[in-house]
Amino acid sequence: MKTSSLVPLLLLALIVPECQAFLPPSNSPRGRIGGLFSQPFTDGRNSGDNGVPPSDDIGHLQAWDGFEGPTLLASIIRKNDTDAPSGLRGGGDVVKGTQATLSSTAKKKVANSFKSKEVKKEEELLHQLKNMPIQRVVVPNSTVLPNEVIQLAANRAGVVGHPLQSTSIQSFAKSLKEWYIRKGYILHSVTGATLQSETGTAIITVQEPAVSKDPVGITFCKEMVVDEETGNLLTFRQYKDKHQNRRTLGFDKITKADLNTTFVPTAGHTRPNRIASALGLSPGNPFQWDGIRWQQIASSGIFAQVLRATPQPMQDGTVQLHILATEAPTRHLEYGLGKSLYTGSWEGELDFEHINLLGGGESLGLSVRRGTKDAEPSIRLSFTDSKFGLGGGYDLEVFSDFIGDQPEEMQEGELPPDYDHDSILDRKGATVRLRNPICSRIVRNSVASGSLERTATKTGLHETIGSTTLAVGPFVKRLPYDARSSIDAKCSLGTRLFAASSTTEEANALLPPLKLKPYTSATATTRQIFPLLASFGPGGRPLILALKHSITTATPNLPRHEAKAQGIAHNIRGSSLNGRVASALTGTTELRVPIDIPVVQIRQDTNVVFFGDWLFAAKDSQSSFRRKSCVGVGVRKSVQGIPLKYDLCYSSDDGKFQSAFGLGADFDF
């Protein structure tokens, strides 16, 4: 339909509502034309009461005399009835609906006929953009997205080679978001897309929040008890003392779960910049979250409880990691009982430790040990930076160890003085250890250490020893049926320098000249755990077969106290001390049977262990190997968290039954 033909229709639609006031009354027997505009139909059919002849077809209005407007309107409605409102039923509704339809259609036609060149150009450009295939995709404002990732995501989403579609862009954005999450950029996202018409390039915009100038903020708090009587805040110790003083028949013991507690701000020792450094958060860099690192930091012992750790937006648009946590107590004093590494005798131990000393997880420790027959105590002062349990870290240790020989091994002083046959009194020195000096991608666990020490004999002879040690492992491997295996190794290189004597000048004149005595030693250990039955007994704990084998060897110049320590470390159960050992091969087989005690209050961790040990050892390279073996049974049980063991075995060393008490859990990994 042409625009010129729409103009009369448009005018008619505007004039018709105003015409009914000027129409004269009709003398026609059919009734007044005004009834068409004044009374609606109630049932969808013309009943004739309003002066309009009853009819099922609104087209019958064409027969009316003296008025052609309704004839034209009805004709248009019959031709375009799909555009009319569904509830339209003749009469006034017909005219009103027709007016709206004609007005809308006419306006659109008139507007299309009189469009400006700018509008037409914009429409042509829009049509061109809708059908233009995308040639390439770029993300210009990203600092972390590799181009390979962008192109791969675009090809997978079907963006390249097709017109710009919302579905393809959404798929492309989803792929980029998955890559962001996988790499730890949890706050990054796609924000928009535009099409450059000249080159067919889709420009994707992303949001990559940067780290604030203060990467980490920590709010320290402590938990306090709300007194139910006064409403005051009390520490747990204060509340315990108050409750203890008022305990009567009406006041029973209470637990922490029954208390009304709250958290209040307090001061802390942990430095936020050390946390940021451990997490790899640097000011200005994109915010990248490492969940594994955070779990290691949270469980490193500096925090007693982490209430919240979330990234917070700053006013300048950057992001800061905010931590709400309670700190763990920094000072610890512990005591214990153990066996000496150099004498093999029982000794008491007192340990003091100050953790988080400098606010970065560092610890300062002091350990004092002494046996009942030791002439002097063994003292160690250590400083440790574990890097929150992450890769790296170091230990600095200064020690003074008593390693005096047992009375039966002492020899009387002889002339000329002989260091190799004199009784060693003690060793003093320092050790530096580095954790994971080898890249973790090559060797998962490694420790390198260097030690410089000076030993002294009872007659005053001295010797200086320098050594380096590299330990790797354990390397754990999973085996079928929940079995597992591990191996670790250690190698030491060192040299001995016989220095001087504090004895008489005549004795010094008989000493050999200064010379170096290099030495080396190596040790390797394998362990295997085989669950024979996944569930044994009512407790459901597994029946386990455990194997352990170890081999060690050393050159002839190995220091005597190190050889003695190797002899103690490679001894078997129920056997006498080995003395000095340069080379040894040992093996252990254990069958661990879980036993459940029918007492509810007892922790069900009791085991009965059937074991067999064997040993081949040589004092030095010129000595022959001697053999030892034993079989026996033992009981394992933890009492107040301390693992206890008791063994009864038959040893081939002396052909007798021996019993032994010990501390510590059986080997596992």
From TrEMBL:
Domain Polypeptide-transport-associated ShlB-type: 133-208
Gene3D superfamilies: membrane protein fhac, membrane protein fhac: a member of the omp85/tpsb transporter family
Source organism, top-level taxon: Eukaryota
InterPro entries: D15-like, Polypept-transport_assoc_ShlB
Leader sequence residues: 1-21
Pfam family, one: POTRA_2
Keywords noted in UniProt: Membrane, Signal, Transmembrane, Transmembrane beta strand
Name of the protein: Polypeptide-transport-associated ShlB-type domain-containing protein
Organism: Phaeodactylum tricornutum (strain CCAP 1055/1)
